[in-house]
Amino acid sequence: MTRTLHPARRGWLYFGLFVGLTGTVSGLLWRHAQHPIQSLPSVLIGQPAPRFALPSLTDSSRSIDSRALAGAPYLFNVWASWCASCAAEQPSLQHFASRNPIPVIGYNWKDNRQDALAWLARQGNPYRVTVTDDQGEMAVAWGIIAVPETFLVDQQGRIRWQFRGPLTPTIIETQLEPALRKLSSHGNHFDSQDHSR
Amino acid sequence: MAITLTLKITLVNWSLLGFVLIGGFIPWAWAAQRQDPPLPFTSPQQEAHFYQLATEFRCLQCQNQAITDSPAPIAAAIRRRIFGLLQQGWTDQQIRDYFVSRYGRSMLYRPPLNRQTAMLWMTPWLLVLIASSGMLLAISRARWQSVRQ
């Protein structure tokens, strides 16, 4: 004795299976589109910030060592004069720098020195200091994917927050400033001394 | 008259194409060259080893391209880093571990089999199992029905 489905019911069963499978695949693709790999948090969160010793943008004979930044939190912002999104985030970053005592360190990536200086003169300069890396290899140590990208490093030199893409007032208010408040509530204090640019 | 006009239009089209190619391609090629000078391989074996390893890495900026194919600025920096690490005598596994510690496992085209990636590795085999059991079931049922008739 066999239990066979009526052809009409079998048709509905196959239709249901087809719709279910298509729906699942579409759902997974949609989820992937909403959360691309670039939006995944950096694996370096909680890890020590990679050390660097790079020339200053304004004075290429002077090397800036990240060890000089130890002991106080800082914001590390990757930018380039050829990057349109970097120009878009500059007003937000300048507003942030004017409201917060935390130093903003610029990392000028794969750029031409003259172009970078002209860009800062045109767009405004929110950076306490800017380091340059024309070959761009140090970006690999920081797990950088593209410009702009921003990291918050705490007093112990660990990366606490990271954002890929241009900073907006909303991102600053809802993500960066709360992360910063969390640092200060954990006993981090800011170095408000004005380092020479 | 009509032939002269067609000739004129064709000439204008070709000139425009030439203008676009010269005006667009040459600065682009120059910029690409400036951004990414070729890696100084010393032997064909060294170059082959480099490409064998580098094609294992996905470019996270343009995800459907390997690090070796991507024109993204970060891909050029990563290629340079891989080359530098190989020069320093790092093993392939040490280099894979280095990039996973910076970019995560999603950078590897062939992620290792562990608890977190088990689903990824098992799903194709599970689908093959389901499809083949369905096929076997359909065949055996059809055969049984033909015997009964």
Keywords:
heterodimer, A: 197 residues, alpha/beta, 5-stranded mixed β-sheet, two-stranded antiparallel ribbon, 5 helices, 7 strands, 39% helix, B: 149 residues, mainly alpha
Reconstruct the topology from this structure:
The complex is a heterodimer of chains A (197) and B (149).
Chain A: H1 7-34, E1 53-55, E2 63-65, E3 74-79, H2 84-99, E4 104-109, H3 113-123, E5 129-133, H4 138-141, E6 149-153, E7 159-164, H5 169-185
Parallel strand pairs in A: 3-4, 4-5
Antiparallel strand pairs in A: 1-2, 3-6, 6-7
Chain B: H1 2-35, H2 44-54, H3 73-87, H4 92-103, H5 118-148
User: Quaternary status of these chains?
Assistant: heterodimer
Largest beta sheet of chain A: what is the strand line-up? Answer: 5-4-3-6-7
N- to C-terminal distance of chain A: 88 Å
Written as H for each helix and E for each strand, in order along the chain, the element string of chain A is HEEEHEHEHEEH
Strand content of chain B: under 5%
What structural class do the secondary elements of chain B suggest? mainly alpha
List low-confidence stretches of chain A.
Answer: 191-197
Proportion of residues in extended strands of chain A: 15-25%
User: Given the structure, what is the number of helices of chain A?
Assistant: 5
Task: Describe the structure in your own words.
The complex is a heterodimer of chains A (197) and B (149). By secondary structure, chain A is of the alpha/beta class. Chain A has five helices and seven strands; from the N terminus they run αβββαβαβαββα. Chain A has helices at residues 7-34, 84-99, 113-123, 138-141, 169-185; strands at residues 53-55, 63-65, 74-79, 104-109, 129-133, 149-153, 159-164. A five-stranded mixed sheet of chain A has the order 5-4-3-6-7, with helices on one face. In chain A, a hairpin with a 7-residue loop joins strand 1 and strand 2. Chain A starts with 6 loop residues before the first helix and ends in a 12-residue tail after the last helix. The relative contact order of chain A is 0.17. With 149 residues, chain B is mainly α. Chain B contains five helices and no strands. The longest helix of chain B has 34 residues, at 2-35. Chain B is flat and about 75 Å long. Mean pLDDT of chain B is 82; it is low at 30-34.
